[in-house]
Design brief:
This is Adenylate cyclase. This protein has 495 residues and is α/β, with parallel strands linked by helices. It contains 21 helices and 9 strands.
Length: 495
């Protein structure tokens, strides 16, 4: 209806959001999904009825010939458009709605680089390179950089580059390829205009492996120049061949636990990272990765042994990671996780803030900061961090929904929490504790108990006493821990 009110005229995204959603917080991605659904139903694949006007908005161009068979009512095409718009609005009313993206600096998405290496050298190298470029670009205050997790959902996608850019809300897309022959790495990169698919810049780099990150720094600076912004002068990171290998192990571990959040995945990660620390003792990646793994293991009861000794080792490993690489945002992220688990809440928040400073595009670091702020009762600040994640990581994974839903439960907005939780495509079994607490808050006793059974099926030895031991001293907001433990007990967790 908003488009039909101004046929042939450009209607901006902001106007559509105001007219259709009437103050509800959504992103340009939500608008694009509505437009795509309208085009699908109207069979407007060539975008002639609903046109996209790059960087301005959308325009409805009604067909020149309109049937007059039904003079007493509106044309069928307009009825179809009206019905489809209403359907889309209703669907989005139940979906997870994200904050409006305000005008600002250019938005860049770095896609996973294709790997053209011989079979024996194919693996995680390309992802490591793409991740490093994403991190380096995030240091430029002139840009907003889409999180790697959202960008990487388009690996091997057949979509046009403009469609990918539209879905990510990106002005520019960087794509490229890697080829490693065991000695040297050849990297090609291409910067593309997200609206027109014009090739703005391209280059090729052929370097020894130990100069890989230096080449990436050059790439990031060239991209900055290509979009006409002032380049920030920063030191070029250097990495030894051993450090690169340790990074690949850390990337593999992170990917494994994200794909399958389970005890089995964690134990594999712990074994691999122990080997990484033995083989590459001067790399930060092994210690920080192992500190994170041990923290997860203790939190979910997946590692056995003297808990105080494990807590101490976690702390030593996290500190070692920061000492080895004080500019590595994941080292500070790991340190924050460990400090939080060891009940040093203020220290944890400081570490998380440093991680965000080092890599503003990291949804992991911001999510951890949001959790820590919520634990001490700063829920408004925590939700601001979640809003930032929703901007930089428009296709974020389950952990953001999990964190936001728990914060909403904490504030008493339990119906909203349930909507947020169920908006995620999937959740690990560990998240069922949060779902149980949400249903208990709403009064859905049967669903709350079913959710708790889902958690206990994967964690049969977990009890309220163990839960209390984990969160005491960490969840310091007034009444929060008691309310949570009461919900755990009421929904069926053994005492």
């Amino acid at each position: 209806m908003a488009l039909a009110k101004a046929p042939g005229e450009i209607v901006s995204q902001d106007t559509l959001i105001e007219d259709v959603w009437q103050g509800r917080a959504v992103t340009a991605d939500s608008v694009a999904q509505c437009i795509a659904e309208i085009r699908r139903v109207l069979e407007d694949s060539d975008k002639r009825i609903v046109e996209t006007v790059p960087r301005q908005g959308y325009r409805l161009v009604p067909p020149s010939a309109v049937s007059t068979d039904e003079p007493d009512g509106p044309p069928r095409g307009r009825l179809a458009l009206l019905a489809l718009v209403l359907l889309c609005v209703c669907a989005l009313a139940f979906a997870f709605l994200r904050p409006t993206e305000s005008p600002g600096p250019p938005v860049i998405a770095v896609l996973p680089f294709e790997d053209f290496s011989p079979p024996e050298y194919q693996g995680y190298l390309s992802d490591a390179v793409s991740d490093n470029i994403t991190t380096l670009l995030a240091l430029y205050p002139q840009f907003v950089v889409i999180s790697q997790r959202s960008s990487f959902t388009f690996r091997d996608s057949d979509l046009a580059m403009s469609e990918i850019a539209e879905r990510l809300g990106a002005d520019y897309v960087l794509e490229g390829s890697q080829q490693y022959d065991g000695t040297r790495v050849r990297t090609t990169a291409r910067l593309i205009d997200g609206a027109t698919e014009a090739n703005l810049w391209a280059d090729e780099f052929d370097v020894p492996l130990n100069e890989l990150l230096r080449a990436n720094s050059r790439i990031s600076r060239k991209i900055a120049g290509a979009v006409g912004e002032r380049v920030v002068d920063m030191a070029e990171p250097r990495m030894s061949e051993g450090d690169v290998s340790a990074l690949l192990i850390a990337n593999a571990a992170q990917s494994r636990i994200m794909r399958n959040f389970s005890r089995e995945s964690l134990l594999i990660n712990i074994a691999e990272q122990e080997q990484s620390m033995r083989d590459y003792p001067d790399s930060a990646w092994g210690p920080l990765g192992q500190a994170l793994s041990l923290r997860i293991g203790l939190r979910y009861g997946w590692v056995e042994g003297d808990q105080e000794a494990i807590r101490q080792r976690m702390h030593e490993l996290a500190r070692r990671g920061v000492e080895l690489d004080p500019n590595n945002f994941l080292a500070f992220h790991a340190l924050g996780r460990v400090l939080m688990f060891n009940r040093d809440v203020d220290g944890a928040i400081s570490a998380f803030r440093r991680a965000v400073e080092l890599n503003p595009s990291s949804s992991f670091a911001r999510n951890a900061l949001a959790q820590a702020l919520a634990f001490i009762g700063k829920t408004d600040e925590a939700l601001e961090e979640i809003a930032s994640i929703e901007l930089i990581d428009p296709l974020y994974g389950h952990d953001t929904n999990w964190t936001k839903a728990r914060i909403q439960w904490q504030t008493g907005a339990c119906d909203e929490a349930l909507d947020t939780f169920t908006a995620a495509p999937s959740m690990p079994a560990a998240a069922n504790k949060t779902l149980a607490a949400i249903h208990h808050c709403i009064g859905n006793s049967e669903k709350a108990e079913a959710a708790m059974r889902g958690f206990l099926s994967e964690n049969p030895d977990w009890t309220v006493s163990r839960e209390r031991a984990v969160i005491t001293g960490m969840w310091t907001a007034s009444g929060l821990a008691d309310r949570w433990l009461a919900a755990m007990s009421a929904t069926g967790m053994p005492l």
